[in-house]
Amino acid sequence: MPDSLRGADVATVRPAIGSGDPLPGTAGFGGAVDDRVVRDVLGREPVYLGAAGDDRDWSFDPTDFADPELLDAGTVVEPDGERRKVWPLPTPEVETDHEAAIDAVREAVLTSVREPDPEGLAVAFSGGVDSAIVAAGVPEAPCYVAGFAGAESHDVEAAREAADAMDRDLRIVEFDHDDIVRAVPEIARATGRTNAMDIQIALPLYFVAERAAADGFDRLAVGQGADELFGGYRKVVDPESDHRVDADTVRGATREVIQTLPDQLPRDVLTLRAAGVEPVAPLLHDRVVDAALRLPAELLASEAERKIALRRAATGVVPEPVRTKEKKAVQYGTYAARELDRLARQAGYKRRMENHVGQYIDALLAE
């Protein structure tokens, strides 16, 4: 069994196994501890298990196995192979004092975004509140945004405005159809995913990370987790009438969305590593998770505003237009989804066909 642990030291994780503490003060962890295999409560470090007969029991890299199995978040695998769910997502008491709740978010977020060593660090910057807060913590780090070449995409436009307002060094990464055709198989092989949505989301991350690595940076700070933790999705606003969630309350729907992170994060982590950088996700630190889980519904999302507590906590940290700006999802704001769809149709995979983009991705992999 490989003797390695990522994201935390053994001295922190070992007692957390014994106590069942799901938030022991880390930014996530995974790997080996005393001949056990572990993955933290939110699955911030992907860990894969091999099948019987494989040369190794587990790996951080799914390509090490013919049929890798993603270890469930919060799980410990004992030396005899027994799996135990040690760390369930906690249910802390709700903070009903709104000012106290916002202060807790502010302290947790600012501590976390200021913690990374700026040496060798760049920032994935889309001009929204999440990436702006991350960038504010490391004021000397350059900011990178991706967008389709020849078109002022929503993300590029927003990033320009935010970078100007924050007086930041912004580097624009333009990608074209040839870049997409080249990157899709690389992302798919690295992540083990070929569905259209995952590839669309990963493409801009890949291009930003690739450029940052070429510029000499080995780590990329990202705003991952903010939408899930702080009520950033439209579907949590009125969950009772939204078929995309099972919960019927804002807090319940937000918790449901948070529990999708262990499946989403491996896509992003493996994409960034494949492009040559190590991800840094300060908004996923345990202290931020704890503060977010304590938020009342009124500070998560409403018809008028989403990520309410996070935006209020960002007052005075990022410029006002950036703090309040609503943004498109990265696959749409960069035109990655639009142009991948265009390439699929140009290759003969029409929209009337079932999963036409997915079929095109499979074809690129087969070449």
From TrEMBL:
<keyword id="KW-0067">ATP-binding</keyword>
<dbReference type="GO" id="GO:0006529">
    <property type="term" value="P:asparagine biosynthetic process"/>
</dbReference>
<dbReference type="GO" id="GO:0005829">
    <property type="term" value="C:cytosol"/>
</dbReference>
<keyword id="KW-0436">Ligase</keyword>
<dbReference type="GO" id="GO:0004066">
    <property type="term" value="F:asparagine synthase (glutamine-hydrolyzing) activity"/>
</dbReference>
<dbReference type="InterPro" id="IPR014729">
    <property type="entry name" value="Rossmann-like_a/b/a_fold"/>
</dbReference>
<dbReference type="InterPro" id="IPR001962">
    <property type="entry name" value="Asn_synthase"/>
</dbReference>
<protein>
    <submittedName>
        <fullName>Asparagine synthase (Glutamine-hydrolyzing)</fullName>
        <ecNumber>6.3.5.4</ecNumber>
    </submittedName>
</protein>
<feature type="region of interest" description="Disordered">
    <location>
        <begin position="1"/>
        <end position="20"/>
    </location>
</feature>
<dbReference type="GO" id="GO:0005524">
    <property type="term" value="F:ATP binding"/>
</dbReference>
<dbReference type="InterPro" id="IPR050795">
    <property type="entry name" value="Asn_Synthetase"/>
</dbReference>
<feature type="domain" description="Asparagine synthetase">
    <location>
        <begin position="254"/>
        <end position="350"/>
    </location>
</feature>
<keyword id="KW-0547">Nucleotide-binding</keyword>
<feature type="domain" description="Asparagine synthetase">
    <location>
        <begin position="121"/>
        <end position="239"/>
    </location>
</feature>
<dbReference type="Pfam" id="PF00733">
    <property type="entry name" value="Asn_synthase"/>
</dbReference>
